[in-house]
């Protein structure tokens, strides 16, 4: 599709085989790599959950999650199968403020301090395609923020992993009802 780019959300080790391992993660990564190869040369943007060790979402600080995606650890790295497609200026970090949960990648920032929304605008992308982990949290929040900002949003159903099967199903239904295209 014209004016498209793929946004890969949190395909990061802690969500794949680490402290917050999600269901269907291996399949989602394999399908994402296949999608990229079939649809070359879409631009590919990466979102990375990237927490300080004292982040408010961790149980020790009263949050709901085990420690995950701590800056500088293996668990915070993008899966190696996707590394050939990673470009630093198209990589957006989120969750860096210890006091704030940030599920959406929309306000994530690259090394130069540009947000995802800003860079999509500069690239004249109108039809972002979203995949990643977890459907119910970061994928859904990112897709919804893109929709609110006026983008036409597509989510790749076979390229998602999730915390909970029922939650995944409900998130897909909610996104569809809001006008997000699922393929
Ligand atoms: C996420 C829980 C905590 C996600 C991030 O990427 O969906 N989930 N932090
Ligand atoms: Zn997180």
Structure description:
The protein is an alpha/beta fold. It has a single domain (4-182), classed as Rossmann fold, CATH 3.40.50.850. Helix content is 30%, strand content 18%. The protein has a 6-stranded parallel β-sheet. Helix 4 links the parallel strand 4 and strand 5. The chain binds pyrazine-2-carboxylic acid and zinc ion.
CATH superfamily: Isochorismatase-like
Number of helices: 5
Major β-sheet profile: 6 strands, parallel
- Rg from C-alpha positions? 15 Å
The CATH topology name reads Rossmann fold
What is the 3D shape?
globular
Could you give the distance between the termini? 13 Å
Proportion of strand residues: 15-25%
SSE layout:
Elements: E1 4-9, H1 13-16, H2 25-39, E2 44-49, E3 91-94, H3 116-122, E4 127-133, H4 135-148, E5 154-161, H5 165-178, E6 181-182
Parallel strand pairs: 1-2, 1-4, 2-3, 4-5, 5-6
The chain binds pyrazine-2-carboxylic acid and zinc ion (ZN).
In short:
With 183 residues, the protein is an alpha/beta fold. Helix content is 30%, strand content 18%. Zinc ion binds next to loops.
Fill in the keyword field for this structure.
single chain; 183 residues; alpha/beta; Rossmann fold; 6-stranded parallel beta sheet; 6 strands; 30% helix; binds pyrazine-2-carboxylic acid; binds zinc ion
